[in-house]
Amino acid sequence: MLARLESNHVMPISSANEKPYQRLQRLNKRLARVQTYSGIAFGSFALLHSVPTILAAGGGVGIVDDIVMISRTLYHAPYAELVWVAGSAGVHVLASVIRRLVQRRISFYSESKPAALTAQQKSGYALIPLLLAHSLSHRVIPSFYTPPISALSPSELSYAHFVAYAARSRPYLSTAAYTTLAGLSVYHAITGLRRSRKARTVAAKASLTYAVTTALALLNLARSFEELHYLTPRYEAVYRHLYV
């Protein structure tokens, strides 16, 4: 007969619950591994994606788009974006949700109170709508063939023009969206790698630092923005599809 610890007392698990409890514990461990590996896969993409932001914050706006185009050759390769980016993110979210349900079932069989959501888990759930909006505005909607968007090419979705246009035309909204996405991503990643009070402190500081870095990048991009009249209505159509 298995046992659980509650209020400093060892509480037995009934024989009827023992087998399903063990199966769920094994499933929980497997899902944890899936979470870890899919998180690392998506994190490597996010790390690559952060380089242009850091360069733009440092004033290197002129070379940002060169770096972006080089990095896009990696994750825009056939099936790479589907598997590496969308696939790893989707698997990570799905594994996280299923694992949460499994843990609640484990609590049911062990007759214990389900654990409350941690700050790391809350940041993950908060990232879902932000990442969806980011994907829609930067990848899905710009690929629409309907005019005036007319399938914006990767070169037309440059930091110097597309992102800079958002920073210039919607400064408050774009700053809030980009900095929140950046800050939560860093916090979620660091606290996911190490679960300790020290890690949470480091994550909070790193999150704030990267959020400020992102804000500086947007400011520099907005200042250097040079409007191209044939692109402006196409960019505006993208954002209007999002009702922003």
Automatic annotation (TrEMBL):
Statement: the UniProt record of this protein carries the keyword Transmembrane helix: yes
Domain of life assignment: Eukaryota
One CC-aspect GO term: membrane
Keyword Ribonucleoprotein: no
GO biological process: lipid homeostasis
InterPro entries reported for this sequence: MCP1, SQR/QFR_C/D
Record keywords, A-Z: Membrane, Transmembrane, Transmembrane helix
Transmembrane portions of the chain: 39-63, 83-102
Name of protein: Mitochondrial adapter protein MCP1 transmembrane domain-containing protein
